[in-house]
């Protein structure tokens, strides 16, 4: 088995999309016969009556693509509907090796199995962490995580000079 030369190693390039146009860029790049990956993970959002789950880009504003073959030019990507630009560092296009893309896709797969647990893990809401409330009537307050369960997190919050334990949804908390 021979080692691959630099030109034979296919890398993933990064395209910055126009705001909230990740899906449009993905569709149009696919139509132009590029391989495209838009990593999506489930996110839990609080509505007034229940938790809603939807998929959002892991990297908002970016998609990964690579040419179908070595003669396939990157030039058309610049004018693709939904794409703002190809990410560069100086004169070099930003790129990722296949191993890095595999790690990203493994991360996405782990989040697809249990969105509640994945939301908690991704926010690192472990016992003792300082958190900020992002939804509900206590938006903006900060507290300490006291207990962690799969569907709720107990937070110690100081209200009117006294510490109170409040059960919160993981979707309504972020690390402070």
Sum up the structure in keywords.
elongated, 5-stranded antiparallel sheet, about 180 residues, single chain, alpha+beta, 3 helices, SH3 type barrels, Alpha-Beta Plaits, about 20% helix, 2 domains
Task: Explain what this protein looks like in three dimensions.
The longest helix has 16 residues, at 98-113. The chain is an alpha+beta fold and 176 residues long. It has 3 helices and 14 strands. It has 2 domains: 12-113, NusG, N-terminal domain (Alpha-Beta Plaits, 2-Layer Sandwich), CATH 3.30.70.940; 122-175, SH3 type barrels (Roll), CATH 2.30.30.30.
Percentage of β-strand residues:
35-45%
The rounded distance between the terminal residues' Cα atoms is 51 Å
CATH topology of the largest domain: Alpha-Beta Plaits
Structure annotation, total helices: 3
Q: In the CATH classification, which architecture of the largest domain applies?
A: 2-Layer Sandwich
The whole-number mean of residue pLDDT values reads 83
Number of strands: 14
Shape: elongated
Provide the helix percentage: 10-25%
């Amino acid at each position: 088995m021979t080692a691959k030369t630099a030109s034979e190693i296919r890398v993933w390039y990064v395209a910055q999309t126009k705001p909230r146009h990740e899906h449009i860029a993905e569709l149009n790049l696919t139509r132009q016969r590029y391989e495209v990956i838009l990593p999506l993970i489930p996110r839990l959002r609080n509505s007034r009556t229940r938790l809603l789950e939807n998929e959002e880009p892991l990297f908002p504003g970016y998609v990964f693509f690579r040419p179908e073959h070595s003669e396939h030019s990157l030039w058309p990507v610049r004018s693709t509907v939904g794409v703002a630009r190809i990410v560069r560092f100086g004169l070099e296009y930003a790129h990722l090796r296949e191993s890095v893309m595999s790690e990203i896709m493994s991360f996405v797969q782990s989040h697809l199995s249990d969105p509640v647990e994945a939301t908690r893990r991704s926010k690192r809401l472990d016992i003792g962490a300082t958190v900020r409330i992002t939804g509900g009537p206590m938006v903006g307050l900060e507290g300490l995580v006291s207990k962690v369960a799969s569907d709720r997190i107990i937070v110690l919050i100081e209200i009117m000079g006294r510490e109170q334990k409040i059960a919160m949804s993981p979707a309504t908390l972020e690390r402070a």
